[in-house]
Design goal:
The chain is of the alpha+beta class and 66 residues long. It is 24% helix and 35% strand. It contains one helix and three strands. It has a three-stranded antiparallel sheet with strand order 1-2-3.
Length: 66
């Protein structure tokens, strides 16, 4: 797995039945992914959980996959 990069901006748009997420990274790189509405809904739920959780540091290691 490659090293984590810093997010600069997120852009979204509908592309047919999917939602395109464009992740602009510091340094100018842009990564685009297509997701279903259900995947985006689960992503939003996970982000809300993280934002609403305590700010205790996580144990070492990568986060669990969705």
């Amino acid at each position: 797995m490659s090293a984590a990069k810093i997010l600069a901006r997120i852009l979204t748009t509908r592309v047919g039945p999917h939602i395109e997420l464009a992740l602009a990274l510091q340094g100018g790189e842009v990564v685009k992914v297509l997701a279903t509405p259900d995947q985006v809904d689960r992503l939003v739920d996970e982000l809300e959980d993280i934002l609403n959780s305590s700010e205790d540091p996580e144990p070492d290691g990568p986060p669990e996959a969705a």
